[in-house]
Amino acid sequence: MRYIKIHLAIIFGIALSVWSCEQFELETDSDTFFHVQIEGTELPVWVKGNTSSKKFIVYINGGPGLTSIDIARADMFDWSSGLEENFALVYYDQRACGNAQGNIDENTLSIAQYVEDLDAIIKVLQSEYDDPDIFLMGHSFGGFIGANYLLTEDFQNNIKAWISIDGAYNFDFDLSWQYRRTFLINIANEEILKGEDVEHWNTALEWANDNPVITTREQKNEWRGFVGFPGERIIPEELGELSLKQYLSIGFGSSYNPIPAYLSSNLNIVNDKLNEDAEGINLINEVSSIKLPSLLLWGRYDDLIVPEEGLDVFTNFGTPDEHKQYVLLPNSSHEPYISDPDGFKGAIIDFVQQY
């Protein structure tokens, strides 16, 4: 593996370095690691897979506050099979997360800065790989970062297509609970039609009819009582499992010491700061400005960001109908790459190969 540190200033021609004089080779089995330095931090970037395809999928993980580098190192979701065979996967750890380095000012923990960070990485990829086709793929809160990127200035021009996995577009929590109420009604009707636990779901429908607006903690707990917790009733359990070998690959292969990193308060700080910054923002109507080919993947039983909300997002996308897809994975919840890896990878491969 090649470890290369690329300063963003080089990309803009402010300074020169030996690494800016030659581009990375295009390979069927690439394994290239580098850092991008921006605003007090060094963001680790790992390009894996088939760069010769000239199709690069930049993965924006959710959380916020999680790591994608360690997930890639352990190949936790088996993306080396299928996705990395066909395309280049670009993993990076976001500011103040995982392998990211530097003394980071908490004031830089904002959506706008995370968008700038992502743009810096994309500029490096464009320069060093001779303008490949770049696909953004965001999961959950990563979908919110990706959507904000696409809605910033002319950044859409940098991207070939957008892949959203159970993405967050709305932080108006009252509206989210209206979607959750609709989710409960739809699930109840589906289960009754199948003849499953009819008495329970009839009671759920009566409760939804008596509670047209869900605002109190008591109502939210009652809603949860009908839906259940993952693995309890209808919500699939999606547990990512790591073997001892995978744990060791993270512990001994990381470019940082994972123990103090995971014991630190960084994850909580990042989570609090970004959620605070996002609170009240609703992009469901604003996505009409996104014109790119788009694939929205949703787990039918996602009880966190329900697919009814996702369908409204999809409907409002400005993408021409023939270039946007909404794929509902029937046996999945919020993390379909765990519960339905074949369906998940198949949908992405089919979509990316079209462009």
Question: Secondary structure elements and their pairing?
Answer:
Blueprint: E1 2-7, H1 8-11, E2 30-38, E3 41-49, E4 55-60, H2 69-74, H3 83-86, E5 88-92, H4 111-128, E6 133-139, H5 141-150, E7 161-165, H6 173-194, H7 198-210, H8 217-227, H9 244-253, H10 258-263, H11 266-278, E8 294-299, H12 307-316, E9 324-329, H13 336-339, H14 341-353
Helix pairs in contact: 4-5, 6-7
Largest sheet features: 9 strands, mixed
CATH class identity of the largest domain: Alpha Beta
| Major sheet: arrangement of strands | 1-2-3-5-4-6-7-8-9
The topology string of helices and strands comes to EHEEEHHEHEHEHHHHHHEHEHH
Q: Which spans of ≥5 residues are poorly predicted at pLDDT below 50?
A: 1-21
Number of domains: 2
Helices, by number, come to: 14
CATH structural fold name of the largest domain: Rossmann fold
